[in-house]
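> example.struct
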């Protein structure tokens, strides 16, 4: 059901395919963090469950710290990418001058 939304929106926006494509792209991009978390869960959760079942608090704390560290690293990476996206052009102008920045015509939909 979650994957059905872009299909429905694309069908409803037949007159404006660029907007429909933008919506579909936004949906895909918002799901990228979930793709990073699945392998982490597959590695960490079984160890955490085993430690909890064995009442090994030390191992459980270590695994929780590991999981939180990986999540924090993903957060730092996301902030770095967002900052590059937002501040990238300004940084290039600051470092190299305005001649280094290509002028890209922005579409009215974006």
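> example.seq
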């Amino acid at each position: 059901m979650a994957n059905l939304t872009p299909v429905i929106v694309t069908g409803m926006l037949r007159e404006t395919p660029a907007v429909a494509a933008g919506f579909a792209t936004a949906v895909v991009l918002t799901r990228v963090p979930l793709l990073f978390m699945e392998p982490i869960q597959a590695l960490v959760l079984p160890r955490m469950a085993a430690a909890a079942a064995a009442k090994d608090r030390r191992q459980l704390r270590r695994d929780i710290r590991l999981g939180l560290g990986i999540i924090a690293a993903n957060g730092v990476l996301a902030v770095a990418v967002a900052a590059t996206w937002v501040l990238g052009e300004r940084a290039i102008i600051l470092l190299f001058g305005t001649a280094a920045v290509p002028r890209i015509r922005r579409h009215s939909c974006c």
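> remarks
The chain has one domain: 4-100.
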